[in-house]
Specification:
Two copies of one chain form a homodimer.
Chain A lengths: L10 E5 L3 H9 L6 E6 L3 E3 L4 H5 L9 E3 H4 L6 E5 L2 E5 L4 E4 L2 E4 L2 E4 L3 E3 L17 H20 L3 H7 L1 E5 L3 H17 L13 E5 L11 H13 L2 E4 L6 E3 L2 E4 L2 E4 L2 E4 L3 E3 L2 H5 L9 E2 L5 E2 L2 E6 L4 E2 L12 H19 L14 E5 L3 E6 L2 E5 H14 L3 H17 L31
Parallel strand pairs in A: 1-2, 1-9, 2-5, 9-21, 11-12, 11-17, 12-13, 19-22
Antiparallel strand pairs in A: 3-4, 6-7, 7-8, 10-18, 14-15, 15-16, 20-21, 23-24, 24-25
Chain lengths: 438, 438
């Protein structure tokens, strides 16, 4: 498409401003490309800490940063807030509601969303945790459950309101369950009169025989014991057979609850459909070793949307480091092509795995090195602050953690989105030291 | 209703956890009363800084604090999250959707909401600023206007998107207009490629002949000039005759815009209707000098919902200090009644008025003392941090201000509530250093 005589910079369009897309854009900073990053949100989200927004420890803005601000100094990059609806491969255009964006190279980094394995009706009762709006919605549900329990006179209903079920024993599920336990048993402990939040029942449900399956078995065991010490009931080998407004069914067992959080599975974005490409069961596009789509050497899929196998034939997990390394790889590959070179197939460097349980414990695995307890937690904190974007966010998050750690309190116990409720009583008094009436 | 033989503590029910209701509850801390504070939100909101949430300088949680956390140590107080729908005066009960809360004394501190003077159809196009959800919604509108302008190819539509009209030249309007100007001309300046945010047009519309009418004329003039230096177009003596999706009409003049913010007028809550009491034009209940409702000596109305006249016959403004002093007065009056004493009529102590214009200027009036400029701004900052609830909030807000001041940046440039938009592309990559798949 580009005119060979004047040779304008080839257009690289990146869809998705998560870890993969953003790292690709940044790695192209000084390269002779014209980069457009499209995302349907204005912010890059640090998803690993989303559970802390959902449990009132952090504010949404602490873990999100405007994508266009991150790339403001990068002259060859522009950012578009838009929802992509498809890709026109023959015309080499990204289709956006209303108009089209032409590309020479396309990088799809559109992530994944939570999936209910054919039970989409569960979504209403068991929300997942993928976006800021998901997190504030889960926060509202958790905090409202305590509020409603405080006003409830029926003991059975009160117990149901004070039961929280987290489905999925991966890092997100483990972190959520631990955080809810600490919220109930520490931060909220003294704030109610009719109920004792410390009596809340928190259940973590996992279909496998252990939590944190990507980790070594000994660490899974450590994590389970740490959860139990926090008061979390860990149900292993328990498959969810139904979710409804009254509770969660695990085969013959039924847990009455009003609050369920889904951390059990994800489905890749629709990129596979856009491209008409072959996908695996989780909807991930089966890419070639250079991350390009078979038959389309100029179209790449990375991150949670791509199925990439490592040397042992296992599919790489959907985590930030994989997406980041893939984004950087794409940039290197495009620069190489431009210079007439080729690069070797993508290879993931695994720097280890970390998961936190509650306020002062974590498990860490680095190859054969296994660490758990307080030291792992300190490391977890440092790693997460280091990877946050923006000095302000790092500072504010560190400060909030220090505050939470010392006081056991949560700074963001805010129920928002209640405006739809009956009008009539609001906050009293206005603003300033004097009249605000315009 | 209470049994004179056993003498249980009289039940004081307070509706509204704003400045008035909360100060009443706190001032009753050690008194022999059984206090119930009902609010439809779980948080006390520091409304004077709401405009900073709307302009991305602060996070919602920075200016809100859970009411039940504020009162957690107060043994005679309980907090109820509920939306009151009425008051049953003969039975002395507060009616809540579903059930009833009996009282011996009732304090209504339900505030005010923005009002469109009979033009309720304007609400859709010109949202006001009263709650956290209002603020995040206004923030979304402002930030989206820039985003849409960046994607817009039509010059007229781009100009319309880059025009922001604030209606109402009171402190809220002045603060909003100044903050939007700084957002456009500083924080966003370098982040776009197709548009220059510095070219944004910000118009402040005021029907009176000057802004900040509660202040002295010289300060109004100072504020207007400060706004103009920030690039705000100040339209005085301009009455809005229509608001619609395309713009704002001021008589024969029409300002094309996609973003209008309403800071022009308020209407008291529905308490007057609940009580069947006489109200003024703004819906405020005409209370007696002891703030009780005529004919109901045990029912009090305070804050923005009450019409209280000062010694000169002027109605007290709807601001935080009035509400706070009234809440404390009610507590003193109830304690006195209990002890068989009476208290003198409520008298407001006016400690002055403050309003800020942009990042380093303010105007201040303390009786005959008038101050403006940087010193007034420093004072404004100190006063507002001092009155925030909670050490954490004070610290985080001070830190954010310092950060904003030094870097000209805004820490909360977050567009939320977009989830309703088309699915299909999300944030790439998940969490942790390894798999999060449960």
């Amino acid at each position: 498409m580009s005119d060979a005589r004047t040779e304008p910079a080839p257009r690289v369009v990146i869809i998705g401003g998560g870890f993969g897309g953003l790292s690709a854009a940044k790695a192209l900073a000084k390269a002779p490309f014209d980069v457009t990053l499209i995302d349907r949100n204005n912010h890059h989200l640090f998803q690993p800490l989303l559970y802390q927004v959902a449990t009132a420890a952090l504010s949404p803005a602490d873990i999100a940063w405007p994508i266009r601000h991150v790339l403001r100094g990068q002259k060859n990059a522009r950012v578009m807030l838009a929802a992509v609806t498809g890709v026109d491969l023959p015309r080499r255009e990204v289709v956006i509601d209303g108009h089209r964006v032409p590309y020479d190279y396309l990088v799809i980094a559109t992530g994944a969303r939570h999936a209910y394995f054919g039970h989409d009706d569960w979504a209403e009762f068991a929300p997942g945790l993928k976006t800021i709006d998901d997190a504030t919605s889960v926060r509202r549900r958790i905090l409202l459950a305590f509020e409603h329990a405080e006003n409830e006179s029926d003991a059975a209903e009160r117990a149901r309101l004070l039961t929280f079920v987290v489905i999925g024993g991966g890092p997100t599920g483990v972190e959520m369950a631990g955080a809810i336990a600490e919220l109930a048993k520490r931060a909220l402990a003294a704030d109610f009169r009719s109920i004792d939040p410390r009596s809340a029942r928190i259940v973590l449900v996992e279909a496998a025989s252990r939590v944190l399956t990507p980790f070594d078995e000994t660490l899974s065991d450590t994590a389970r014991r740490a959860l139990e010490q926090l008061g979390v009931e860990v149900r292993l080998g328990a498959a969810v057979t139904d979710c409804n407004a009254d509770g969660v069914r695990l085969g013959s067992d039924f847990i009455p609850t009003r609050t369920v959080i889904w951390a059990a599975g994800v489905l890749a974005s629709q990129a596979g459909q856009w491209l008409g490409a072959e996908t695996d069961r989780a909807g991930r596009v089966k890419v070639r070793p250079d991350l390009s789509v078979p038959g389309h050497p100029d179209v790449f899929v990375i991150g949670d949307t791509a199925a990439v196998t490592d040397a042992n034939g296992a599919v790489l997990p959907g985590v930030a480091p994989v997406a980041k390394q893939q984004g950087q790889y794409i940039a290197r590959a495009l620069i190489a092509r431009r210079e007439g070179r080729t690069v070797a197939a993508f290879r993931y460097r695994d720097y280890g795995a970390l998961a936190t349980i509650g306020r002062s414990r974590a498990v860490m695995q680095l190859g054969r090195l296994k660490v758990s307890g307080f030291f792992a937690w300190v490391l977890w904190s440092i790693v997460h602050i280091y990877f946050l974007i923006g000095l302000r966010n790092r500072f504010i998050v560190a400060l909030n953690w220090a505050w939470n750690y010392i006081t056991f309190q949560r700074g963001s116990r805010l129920i928002t989105g209640l405006d739809a409720r009956a009008e009539g009583q609001g906050q009293a008094a206005q603003t300033g030291l004097r009249s605000k009436a315009g």
